[in-house]
Amino acid sequence: MYLFIEQSLNGLAVGSIYALITLGLALVYGILGVLHVAHAGIYTVGAYIGYGVYACTGSLVMAILVGMVACSCLGVLIERFIYFPLLKFPPYVPLISSIALFMGMEEFCRLVAGPSVRTFSLELPFPELKFLDIVISPTLTGIFAISATIFLVLWFITTKTELGLAMRATSQDMDIASSVGIDGHRIIDIIFILGSAIAAVAGILVGIYYNEVYPAMGTVPAYKSLALIVVGGLGSVQGAVIAALLLGIAETLLIGYANIPLPRDALAFIAMIAVLLWRPQGLFGKGA
Amino acid sequence: MSSYVITVSIFIVIQAIVAYGLNIIVGYAGQISLGHAAFFGIGAYSAALLSTRAGMVFWVAAPLVMLITGGIGLILGLPSLRVRADFLAITTIGINFIVEALFLYVPFFGGALGIGGIPRVRFMGLRLFGTSYLGLCLLCLGAVILVSWWFTKCWAGLACMALGEDETAASSMGISPVRFKLLAFVIGTAMAGLGGALYAHQMRFIAPSDFGFPVSVMILSLIVLGGMGTLWGPLIGAIILGALPEIFRPFTEYRMLLYGVILLIMIRFQPSGLLGEDSIIRKILKKYWTGGNDEK
Amino acid sequence: MRNDRAILQISDLSKHFGGLKAVERVSFDLLEGEILGLLGPNGAGKTTCFNMISGIYKPTSGSILFHKKRTDGLSPHQMARMGIGRTFQIVRPFATMTVLENIIISLGLQNYQTIGRSSKKWFTPTTRQKAMEILEQVSLCGLAFKKAGILPLGDLRRLEIGRALALKPELLLLDESFSGLRHEKISEMEKLILSLVKKGISVLLIEHNMKVAMKLCHRVVVLDHGRKLAEGTPEDIASDTRVIEAYLGKGGSAYYATSSE
Questions:
Q1: Under DSSP, is residue C181 helix (H, G, I), strand (E, B) or coil?
Q2: How far is A23 from chain B (nearest CA, A)?
């Protein structure tokens, strides 16, 4: 029983990290309709920057802050110079550009930092929690605390502030939004800044949780998060987060308990195809 | 020709065959597919299994392989084509990952080691390899180009092109979206199957990773580079992308980076490809060769 | 009693989108050889009605009879085959194809039914001849080899009518074919529609511009907020106080508008 709970908690941690990566993807899809595969490249770059800054300064806070700022800039650059000019073309054009960009970013990381695995080897500075016999390690506590904070802040921004209202208006219809005085371009910038900063945090957290940072670390999340935004309902941010959490738990439990002859990474896609057959608009998507 | 050049040429021709299949689906029918390598793989695996386990000769197995691949294309296409364009892109990525996982984890398919000992193709008692196998591949490529050409000339192809441009308008003109999208899917996946069979008999050893998602991206970028929906685009794309690794040989370390950068620059500034509408090459051709056919 | 000459019979037709009742229990008949106008302010449910008749939407309830056969729930391509041609309010040309090819796509209607026929060649002298005849009807002959994407709106509206005509329809659905046209183009379009009716095609048209509709239509159905407000000859409608209220109450000057949207 304790093992089950510990496994579930591990799964929840994995799910939280998936959710952090998928958030940016769902936000970008919601506003531009672009499948932002290169988001996983930003996540990889974020992990490397975080690792580099931590190795130099020894300060985790610095590592996270620098990673967030650098990735935000990177995200905005990608949006301005690649996606925005391509919006008038069919959707496969920005998609392929995004995949090409992602490949380039992975290779860039490999060339700069080398193909070997870098290790963080530190625990997050959070307290260890104990309930009865269940021990939650500091890193796990940290992941839960950080992701919960990010979800709450993001939920607050999107539902309670004027910025959130403007974001929703822009994603509904950019022309109408701009006709009522919303600066659509600025909103898009803000979304890329938010999404990319969160991706950087996710990259650093993954680096610490699995204790490894390597060039291809973004490959699996890149496509798994695509499946997740489909399961959640394209453009539904809450849906994507819930789908990510469920997937993290399901993967960990299925690997722990059921002996299925499939790799854990295929599970997301199987879930996606099942959802598409049963509910084509996604679990939390609206309308038909 | 050195045997090295011949081997590279064989791979270019096989890639072109697979790319022509994708061009029917994406270029003509406008259905984005990012899982084409799955069908390439299904073709290769069925060819390998038919020849090693069932002892079939290539000439019997090849049509059967195309039938199998096209049939699986039909089954997988049926649910996929009901979903919206963006979903289709992701669904096909999913199909690719799942098919690769099945090859890897189902013992029948040989697991990570794949299938080895695939015999060479024999023709009148002669084993085809090197130049003669290149000849066979070129023959298949010719047939595939012929089918592609016919596709642009027949009503079914016209219907697919109309659907690719505007599904609502096309369907209100009597074109059944499901039927013609599926038709394009079946023809395209069958071509991928043929490419797979040729690949299996050339390599004589196949493994799941030969048909992973990066291969799908490579095939798609190849037709984007050459010009989506054009008759010669896939061939040009296959030749350029097939020759690139050889040209970049001195910079092996930077190969993938250059590949990504070239693809990015290409699609950013010339999204219709080298031979597509409004492309630089087409404009130059028109200037110097007015009166020449511009094929569609 | 329902009229025997009715080619299209709409009964109690409703379409709901979630809580929004876009069309609510609308009934009307369209007689053979008639021009029936479907009028109403923005958001009255006209285009929704069209989309149900042409098969794009499935009605929430109610029935559509075309030649006394139930057709609600059939898909657009089946409706095209039954003899209904339509145009779109926001034009949908096949932009990268030529004007001629746009027409030829419609001419293939019979060839899309079987695999055998659809593997035949489409660009033959006969199809080309037929397509040119249709282009002549909609006076687009001179533009046959131009890409449809570069045509001005007026020509595109005629191209859409041409595509619909190539289906040899018995019923033509025209969705705001006059909107966005300059004055002289409007009278050309009126002539075109009258000539089609002479050939025995029945026409159901959505119109925003009351002046044009009143002049052209034999009868008019007015929708407002998804419900049928009035039905009758243009003269009856023009003097109907409810109709005037619906228009003046909403858009103010819509009654006098010469162009719309």
A1: coil
A2: 17
Instruction: Kindly report the backbone phi and psi dihedral angles of residue C218, in degrees, each rounded to the nearest multiple of 5, phi listed first.
Output: -80, -45
Rounded-to-integer distance, Cα B35 and Cα B19, Å: 12
**Beta carbons of B173 and C92 less than 8 Å apart:** no
Distances in Å between the Cα of A283 and the Cα atoms of A230, A242, A277 are: 8, 10, 11
Digit-by-digit pLDDT tens for chain B (296 residues) are 688 889 999 999 999 999 999 999 999 998 888 899 999 999 999 999 999 988 889 999 999 999 999 999 999 888 777 777 777 888 888 899 889 988 988 888 988 888 988 888 888 878 888 889 999 999 999 999 999 999 999 999 999 999 988 899 999 999 999 999 999 999 999 999 999 999 999 999 999 989 988 899 889 888 888 888 899 999 999 998 888 777 777 777 777 788 788 888 888 888 777 777 767 777 777 777 655 444 43
In chain B, how many domains are there?
1
Amino acid at C53: I
The two tokens of residue A255 are 């690997």
- A89 and chain B in contact, CB less than 8 A: yes
What are chain C's domains? Answer: 6-93+169-256 (3.40.50.300)
CB contact under 8 A, A99 and B217: yes
Cα separation, C77 vs C84, in Å, equals 10
Interface probe for B, chosen from A92, A108, A223, A260 (most Cβ of B below 10 Å), is: A92
Q: Residues of C with CB below 8 A from B156's CB?
A: 112, 115, 118-119
In a domain, B65, yes or no: yes
Per CB-CB distance under 8 Å, the chain B contacts of A29 are 86
Question: Which chain C residue's Cα is nearest to B158?
Answer: C105
Q: How far apart are CA B80 and CA B89, in angstroms?
A: 9
How far is B259 from A81, CA to CA, in rounded Å?
Answer: 19
Is B87 at the interface with chain A, CB within 8 A? Answer: yes
Contacts of C101 in chain B (CB under 8 A): 158
Angle in degrees, CA A264, A267, A269, rounded to 5: 135
Asked if ipTM goes beyond 0.90, one says: no
Domain boundary assignment for chain A: 15-219
Establish if B28 belongs to a structural domain.
yes
Find the CB nearest C122 among B153, B170, B177. B153
The pTM is what?
0.85
Nearest to C118 among B159, B166, B172 (CB): B159
8 Å CB contact of A261 and B82: no
Radius of gyration of chain B (CA): 19
* Cα angle: C135, vertex C137, C139; to 5 degrees: 65
Length reported for chain A: 288
Contact residues on chain B for C166, CB-CB shorter than 8 A: 173
Nearest CA in chain B to A273: B91
Contact B56, B68 (CB under 8 A): no
* Shortest alpha-carbon distance between residue C227 and chain B (Å): 26
Measured distance CA(B229)–CA(C94) in Å, rounded: 15
**Residue B207 sits in which domain range?**
3-212
Contacts of B79 in chain A (CB under 8 A): 273, 276-277
SS3 A276: helix
How far apart, in whole angstroms, are the C-alpha atoms of residue B34 and residue B95?
9
**C112–B159: do the CB atoms touch at under 8 Å?**
yes
End-to-end, the C-alpha distance of chain A in Å comes to 41
Mapping DSSP to helix (H, G, I), strand (E, B) and coil, where does residue B39 land?
helix
C17 part of contact set with chain B, CB < 8 Å: no
Classify residue B182: in a domain, yes or no. yes
- Cα A135 to Cα A103, A141, A245, A248: the distances in Å are 40, 10, 21, 19
Is C8 touching B (CB cutoff 8 A)?
no
To the nearest whole Å, the CA of B112 is away from the closest chain A CA by: 12
